[in-house]
């Protein structure tokens, strides 16, 4: 244990030395932002080396059902495949690539752009491309072919208006039957608009056909068709390695609404004889005998752009906040942190969240996404052009 303590102190020392005073200049005072401090403690995340720094501006990262890691580099408009050691396996150009998901058939769904010239003008529209990784030449990103595309707004109407060019797909998450949710944001929020309001969570079937925007209800049945405000990150509860697959269709999402009180929420899908209802999870724990911090604290996040649910049975929720340059970890019922070691004498969950602006191995600059597999946490550190990997000291073997 003494050696482990020295290892943690060494990494923390490197982090401190790496963040030079006035490194970011004097233009912006960020002192008002609360950042989780990575102080010395036995239960903490430590970096996995080497740092993966072959990217320009990585905006998304996922752990695939095929046991590969996929990174979206918006700076080069490429999808990069890595094995679990971090070795690069190949790249694929996808116009405007910024987000990614993989379905359980091992196809990739990539959010990018499509240049529409049908009306005589060149308009870049938000688009979802389906990539088949298998070909006669083999399996892998280097062999991937685009087999389908969903171009906004032509999945629900035949003509576009000027304002449709301002609508963006943001992130995708796949369900157990290969249907998938897409977060969408834009300037219009009319509940009667064809295809639903611009700010919406959309449901597509496994064949890329648009089904419906999700309408949220309360526990009394009142419906809120404009419930989502600037939704961004989204994750279902269906994640590799699929120890037990959630088939209900629950999901978590984040909001970039600057006035939002709760910007990370879970929506639960309820099926009954009366039909299907989507209701917000309200039974988050706030038990201060168990933890000091919680996921549903008012105004806890500033710009939560990354979200992950762990599929290995630990059922943790990870959030990355771009404005706070921080990574947060919660249990499935909203407690921040992890259980302490049995012999530690601690009775509360130990806070493992950390961050801060900088270039050190425990610091971030505009982190955009988080992924998890086999006890390793991956963070797309966009502003530093790298992907960082972390392991909890409790998981070091």
Q: How would you characterize the overall build of this protein?
A:
The protein is mostly beta strands. It has a single domain (29-395), classed as TolB, C-terminal domain (Neuraminidase, 6 Propeller), CATH 2.120.10.30. 4% of the residues lie in helices and 39% in strands. The chain is built from 1 helix and 28 strands. It has one helix at residues 2-18; strands at 45-52, 58-63, 69-73, 78-82, 88-93, 99-102, 108-116, 123-132, 134-135, 138-139, 145-151, 168-174, 180-185, 200-204, 210-213, 216-217, 223-224, 231-236, 251-255, 264-272, 275-280, 304-309, 317-321, 326-330, 354-355, 367-373, 376-381, 386-392. The strands form 8 sheets. Strands 1-28-27-26 form a 4-stranded antiparallel sheet, with no helix packed on it. A 4-stranded antiparallel sheet has the order 2-3-4-5, with no helix packed on it. The protein has a 4-stranded antiparallel sheet with strand order 6-7-8-11, with no helix packed on it. The longest helix has 17 residues, at 2-18. It is globular, with a radius of gyration of 21 Å. The protein starts with a helix and ends in a 5-residue tail after the last strand. 42% of the residues are buried. Residues 1-28 have low confidence and may be disordered.
